[in-house]
Amino acid sequence: MNKVQVDILGLSTSPHTNGAYALILYEVEGKRKLPIIIGGFEAQAIALKLENIKPPRPFTHDLFKAVADTFQLKVTEIVIDELHNETFYAKVVCEMDGESHEIDARPSDAIAIAVRFSAPIFVSEEIMNEAGIKEEDEKEESALPEGKEGKPAELPSTSAPPASRTDLSIADLQKRLEEAIDKEEYEEAARLRDEITRRK
């Protein structure tokens, strides 16, 4: 299977996705992007790790990492390798005792695991050709369609933050972010993090 390495460009919300998020992957050595609709919980798990924010209690993906480290299981890569009925499928490739194993997973879970292991993310060339978006095509793309988790998504436009956040200073936003994490309100924490990042 021919595959290309991708990295995470960002996460975005859209009123058209019913509370879900669009995860945008970009081709490391190319100009294509691959947007995927993922659930809010998985989006938070990915975002918190990317921002090095440690929740008070471990997420499921953090637990997986702790168990894997305990038993010397190494995640070497994850591969988004199938697309059926507009739903992506992925494999988590692991090594243990010198043997390689492939574990079936949703792309959102696989990527949440990959960022915890600093493992590379790959997409099959066939999927990039079928569902990837080239830079010159972005102007022709409209808003995100409604869809279930794992479906391909069109590139979203990032909506402006609520007025209640725009009126706050970065210091106040940071304080609210810490409070949201303490209360385990991770969706609000993700929004506050996005606003802080937007201002920097």
Topology, pairings included?
Layout: E1 3-13, E2 21-27, E3 32-38, H1 40-50, H2 60-70, E4 74-84, E5 87-96, E6 99-105, H3 107-117, E7 121-124, H4 125-131, E8 133-134, H5 163-166, H6 170-182, H7 186-199
Parallel strand pairs: 4-7
Antiparallel strand pairs: 1-2, 1-7, 2-3, 3-8, 4-5, 5-6
Helix pairs in contact: 1-3, 1-7, 2-3, 6-7
Structure description:
The chain has 200 residues and is of the alpha+beta class. The chain folds into 2 domains: 3-134, Roll (Bifunctional nuclease domain), CATH 3.10.690.10; 170-199. It contains 7 helices and 8 strands. A hairpin with a 4-residue loop joins strand 2 (21-27) and strand 3. Helix 1 (40-50) packs across helix 7 (186-199). Residues 130-169 are annotated as: Disordered. InterPro entries: BFN_sf, Bi_nuclease_dom, UVR_dom, UVR_dom_sf. Residues 167-200 form the UVR domain. This is Bifunctional nuclease family protein.
Discrete helix count: 7
> Structural class of the secondary elements?
alpha+beta
Shape category = globular
What's the level 1 CATH class of the largest domain?
Alpha Beta
Q: CATH homologous superfamily name of the largest domain? A: Bifunctional nuclease domain
Order of helices and strands: EEEHHEEEHEHEHHH
Q: Tell me the helix content.
A: 25-40%
Radius of gyration equals 17 Å
Strand content: 25-35%
Overall structural domain count: 2
CATH-level-2 architecture of the largest domain: Roll
How can the largest sheet be summarized?
Answer: 8 strands, mixed
Q: Which segments are poorly predicted (pLDDT under 50) over 5 or more consecutive residues?
A: 142-148, 154-163
Mean pLDDT: 82
Number of strand segments: 8
